[in-house]
Amino acid sequence: MTLAIELEKVTGLDCRWNTDLTSFSTFRLKSQGDLVIAHDEKALAVLINILRTHKRSWRMLGWGANQVLAPVETDVLIQLDFTHDPEVLIQARDEYVLPASVGLNVLTAHAIKFGTLGWEALTGIPASLGGAIYMNAGTALGEIGSIVKSVRLMNAQGEVREEVMTPTSFSYRKNHFVRTGDIILSAVLTHGGFDTALPDKIRKYQEYRRQTQPLATKNCGCVFKNAAPTRQAGRLIDLTGLKGLSVGALRVSHKHANFMENAGGSSSEDFSELTRLINQQMKLHWGVTFELEVKAV
Ligand SMILES: Cc1cc2nc3c(=O)[nH]c(=O)nc-3n(C[C@H](O)[C@H](O)[C@H](O)COP(=O)(O)OP(=O)(O)OC[C@H]3O[C@@H](n4cnc5c(N)ncnc54)[C@H](O)[C@@H]3O)c2cc1C
Question: Which of 104, 130, 154, 237 places its Cα 20 to 30 Å from the Cα of 180?
Answer without folding.
Answer: 104
